[in-house]
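Q: Please design a sequence for this.
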């Protein structure tokens, strides 16, 4: 509920009312935090052991998801993780103001408590061979993510001390490395990692400014004390003290001119980053240079001091439907910089034995059941292609179901898709307007001063109120309208039937008049389906 861009909310039928869709993301966060606060444990589907062993490579969102689903089905699971801690991109690529460590740690511990074995600082191909893992385990799930940042490939980039990829920059910050970004940061790219890197840079600048403020305040205090002592002495000493005070104050003011700029070759509308995060970045004071691309980097010694930028214009749409950026001949400009962050994408690190799994583009290919071309080897998450974390979690679940079926010689079939209930199936006027419950947000000037969470979890009262906004699309909630309006009295309640199916139709009395279908507000009743 913290980092997902909640695409599900765009499918919520309540969005067609003025009060907007149900705050699904906020509700998921509340439920997750409620479970952690109450120390609720995850439950297994069975206590029986299958005696089958599965290796999960990577303790990121997809690996943890797969391990969880396999463990609850009775399989023995061992996770191999190259880093010092679990979480993958959730820990090393997501800023702490979006996902705090304590929340992530608690969620991971719940999975480990199911009996999952964890081996940290274990890199495949170095500490243990992939072939050895395949011999020792009945199945393997590859979920190593895509942690290697892509480079620009322009002059001046290679070897520059103050040029980072978005992935490496966020990794260093999240692991506690000290990075002095300076007062002028330019982030190149329009995706989530670029926006995250820009907002993190702003906070690093603020931390540096606070440190400078503390030092400058001490300097000013010392200078003012010196000024007081010298005020009755010779004019020269008097002026020296006054200059010290003025210098300290000037230093304090200069640090306030720090800025972070995102350089993107298309327009704001084409940015693939989460729209809400882009808006937050704007509110925090991050600048945007749209329709501009880096052409070369100007260096002095081992550091980049400026970026030569090319103005762009949007041409015809490419195969994906997005309009391709084209350079405007002769239209260039230069941006002075202290730090450059390249957030244009990431790729998996498929080296050594794992390189055999890579396609010509450097990604792993898998079927809809997450099976790779190698028997018994499954894969999912960002190693297949970049996507949101919830997609990675879902692929881990699908892989676990397929692995479970394979290990137990069962037939695997993808979960059946339910009948979509659309706006036209609903009677939206039945539902009274209820304002959406939004999470509280700390002030922008406070948010940019550190890495504390920006948004808070809904209160219990808010969550209960928000839950009542759900219209139960396609699920009977016994409103009784079908029974009340049936002219033949063919519908009655049968409380012995399963929840959501308590309304019973006597087809010896039904004449197919459609009144019940037209009266049903939630789209549950379909003519000819039989109740």
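A: Design:
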């Amino acid at each position: 509920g913290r980092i997902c861009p909640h695409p599900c909310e765009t499918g919520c039928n309540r969005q067609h009312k003025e009060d907007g869709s149900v705050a699904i993301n906020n509700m998921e966060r509340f439920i997750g935090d409620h479970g952690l606060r109450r120390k609720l444990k995850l439950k297994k589907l069975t206590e029986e052991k299958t005696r089958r062993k599965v290796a999960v490579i990577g303790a990121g969102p997809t690996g943890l998801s797969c391990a969880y689903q396999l463990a609850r089905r009775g399989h023995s699971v061992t996770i191999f993780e190259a880093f010092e801690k679990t979480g993958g991109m959730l820990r090393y690529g997501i800023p702490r103001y979006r996902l705090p460590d304590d929340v992530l740690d608690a969620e991971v511990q719940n999975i480990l408590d199911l009996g999952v074995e964890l081996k940290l600082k274990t890199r495949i191909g170095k500490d243990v061979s992939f072939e050895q893992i395949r011999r020792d385990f009945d199945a393997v799930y590859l979920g190593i993510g895509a942690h290697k940042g892509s480079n620009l490939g322009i002059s001046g980039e290679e070897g520059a001390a103050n040029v980072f990829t978005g992935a490496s920059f966020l990794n260093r910050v999240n692991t506690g490395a000290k990075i002095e970004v300076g007062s002028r940061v330019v982030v190149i790219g329009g995706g989530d990692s670029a926006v995250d890197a820009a907002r993190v840079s702003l906070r690093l600048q603020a931390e540096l400014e606070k440190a400078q403020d503390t030092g400058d305040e001490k300097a000013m205090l010392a200078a003012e004390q010196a000024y007081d002592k010298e005020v009755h002495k010779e004019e020269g000493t008097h002026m020296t003290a006054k200059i010290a005070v003025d210098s300290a104050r000037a230093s304090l003011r200069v640090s306030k001119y720090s800025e972070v700029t995102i350089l993107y070759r298309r327009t704001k509308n084409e940015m693939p980053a989460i729209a809400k995060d882009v808006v937050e970045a704007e509110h925090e004071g991050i600048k945007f240079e749209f329709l501009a691309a880096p052409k070369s980097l100007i260096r002095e010694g081992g550091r980049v001091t400026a970026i030569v930028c090319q103005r762009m214009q949007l041409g015809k749409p490419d195969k994906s439907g997005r309009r391709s950026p084209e350079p405007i001949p002769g239209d260039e400009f230069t941006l002075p910089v202290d730090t450059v962050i390249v957030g244009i994408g990431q790729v998996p690190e498929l080296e050594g034995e794992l390189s055999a799994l890579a396609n010509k583009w450097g990604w792993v290919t898998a079927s809809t059941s997450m099976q790779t071309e190698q028997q018994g080897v499954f894969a999912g998450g960002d190693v297949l292609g970049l996507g949101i974390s919830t997609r990675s979690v879902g692929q881990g679940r699908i892989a676990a179901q397929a692995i479970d079926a394979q290990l137990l010689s069962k037939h695997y079939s993808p979960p059946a898709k339910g009948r979509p209930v659309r706006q036209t199936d609903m009677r939206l006027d039945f539902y009274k307007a209820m304002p959406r419950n939004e999470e509280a947000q700390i002030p922008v000037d406070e948010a940019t001063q550190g890495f504390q969470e920006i948004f808070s979890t809904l209160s219990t009262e808010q969550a209960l109120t928000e839950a009542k906004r759900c219209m139960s699309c396609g699920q009977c909630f016994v409103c009784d309208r079908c029974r009340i309006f049936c002219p033949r009295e063919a519908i009655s309640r049968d409380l012995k039937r399963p929840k959501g199916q308590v309304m019973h139709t006597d087809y010896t009395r039904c004449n197919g008049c459609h009144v019940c279908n037209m009266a049903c507000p939630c789209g549950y009743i379909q003519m000819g389906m039989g109740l």
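Q: Thanks. Anything notable?
A: The chain has three domains: 7-147+348-407, 151-342, 424-519. The first strand starts at residue 53 and ends at 57.
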